[in-house]
Amino acid sequence: MDMSGMHESDPGTHQYTPRTAAPALKAAIADLARQSGRTESELTGITLGEAYRLACSTYTGGLPAYWKNWQTWNAASQKPPAPMGDL
């Protein structure tokens, strides 16, 4: 069975919505807002890809763990699923 078109959508295109965001994402966005000199409301609706790029330019001394983990997960989700072989 070809599952190449069945992987999830690009997480980088998901928009930040505080009402539905996980607590860890809310904390990461709140810190990103403080560190970048923006308000949290300015970051509402930002895509997670844009937020990651902002984090990269904001945290010049190294990314916080949340954004490192997000990038690792994001990169992995861009790969098509591995073949399942003979089951």
Describe this structure in words.
The protein is mainly alpha-helical and 87 residues long. It has a domain at 16-73. The chain is built from four helices and no strands. It has helices at residues 23-36, 40-43, 48-58, 65-77. Helix 1 packs across helix 3. The protein is globular. It starts with 22 loop residues before the first helix and ends in a 10-residue tail after the last helix.
Could you tell me the mean pLDDT?
84
What structural class should be given to the helix and strand makeup? mainly alpha
Order of helices and strands: HHHH
Overall spatial form: globular
Amino-to-carboxy terminus distance: 11 Å
- How many DSSP H or I helices? 4
Low-confidence stretches: 1-7
Number of DSSP-assigned strands: 0
Largest pleated sheet: none
Radius of gyration: 15 Å
% residues in beta strands: under 5%
Q: Fraction of residues in helices?
A: 40-55%
